[in-house]
Amino acid sequence: MKLLWALMIVLIFLLQVRLWVGEGSFAQVWALQQSITEQRDENAELAVRNERLYAEVRNLRNQKGAVEERARMNLGLIREDETFFLVVEN
């Protein structure tokens, strides 16, 4: 009878070890949930960025002035009949 109790205690202990430490344990599930949460947050940020880029592309395709404005801001474009003034601050 004592042998049976000892065997059952050892089996329960082994099951508990697997539950807390082994594959599919609480620690592993918690780590995977953390990883999923981080990935979802990153995906949400990237989705917002992608939507901004798509809006900018639609704007550039539909409006001719948008292309000129972009060239002026990023490339320093000036027309032939314009005068360029560079203001230097101290």
Give the tags.
single chain; 90 residues; mainly alpha
Question: TL;DR of this structure?
Answer:
With 90 residues, this protein is mainly alpha-helical. The chain is 76% helix and 0% strand. The chain has helices at residues 2-20, 26-62, 64-75.
The proportion of strand residues reads under 5%
**Number of strand elements:** 0
The average pLDDT value, as a whole number, equals 87
Taking the alpha carbons of the first and last residues, their distance comes to 93 Å
> Count of helical segments?
3
What series of H and E elements makes up the topology? HHH
Main beta sheet: strand number and arrangement? none
Shape annotation:
rod-shaped
Overview of this protein structure:
The chain is mostly helical and 90 residues long. Helices cover 76% and strands 0% of the residues. It is built from three helices and no strands. The protein is rod-shaped and about 105 Å long.
Q: Helices, strands, pairings?
A:
Blueprint: H1 2-20, H2 26-62, H3 64-75
Helix pairs in contact: 2-3
